[in-house]
Amino acid sequence: EAVATTLAASSSGSTASGDATIVRSGSAGVVATERAPATAALGQEPQALEQQQRFPGVALPSVGASVQVCSLQRHVCGPCDAKRGCSSCFLTCHIDCTSELCAYVACPYCVSRSLVTHENSALCREVQRYNVGCHACGNLGCHLSSATCHARCTPAHHVCEVLARGAGCSSCDKACHRSNADSRCMFYQRPRDRLTWSASAQELLDTQAGTGGSVPHFSQIAWEFLNESRTELLLDGVAYQRRWGNPGDEDRGEQNNCLIDSLRQCLDNIACDRLAVRRDLQAEFGNANHFDPRRNVTENSYLDVGCHWKAIVRSLFRHNTSGRPRECNLDDYCVVALCGLHPSRGGVVLGRINAPNRLVVVNWRDEHFDPCLRR
Predict the structure, then answer these.
(1) Model's pTM, two decimal places?
(2) Distance separating alpha carbons of residues 358 and 236, to the nearest angstrom
(3) Nearest alpha-carbon partner for 25 in 16, 36, 17, 33
(4) Among 137, 213, 268, 290, which one has the highest count of C-beta atoms within 10 angstroms of its own C-beta?
């Protein structure tokens, strides 16, 4: 396609004024487009200049005397072209996502390494996983948008796994940090091996499983899953079936109440409003000590079985609508919390191990609880 351009100077002789006529000759005939004065061309917006630089010698679409250029909100550059267009959005008015015309945002980490791609693109994720490490946590095999990125971990909520003793944090065995010097550790900056009390010989003996002491040990509880779907289990020779702990109705503003619902089902499916129990927990634990963030309760925080089970059971009876007593003796109950992903690591027994009523729940990744009911 041949392009000819004629500039007609004005009578004043100024080289910066006059009219420009672009004539394009092609198979469909000759098209002449009258453009705005050349003075406007010198003051064009960056979008117009970028498009002229990208496609030199090609007339931009125009209406009347004003040149039509692309903007982020409105594009006139035509159909997308994966070969000639932007590497992110494929529009032809710009080259890549570093342009202000692109709807995608360039990844600053990748750009700093001379790799132009947009945030969370397939290329961006691959580079993080196999080359430079996650942009957030720095770990290979991870990327910024991963649900298990260690940068998402907080003292009250961890998405990382629990490692074997000595492989993770020296205090809590979590994988996202190395010691309690990290603020994500539930034992943050707590000194170790410093007790304000001394134990007697019998009390020290109590800390060993199988000695007949009053301190419960998880090694005294034998259990296993009986099927691959982990819905059937055997605990102390008794068969249980795993059910679903309802986290709540989001339309009512209810979240993360699966532990409340699991204990409710374990109490013979006692009828009770979970939100009423959550309000009781907020009143009791809303200003918990910041050194133990697991205890603190907000309207949608995760609940900790070790810190909150007694308050939950007490509140379930207080607000029940099943005609059950409004009060209970907590000595009549114990909770067995099992680790669903790692049965060999056991769990925790809370309350008197020989209590007549045993409430069994399964924990998954410190994020969800399910009840286990006797078959």
Answers:
(1) 0.46
(2) 11
(3) 33
(4) 137
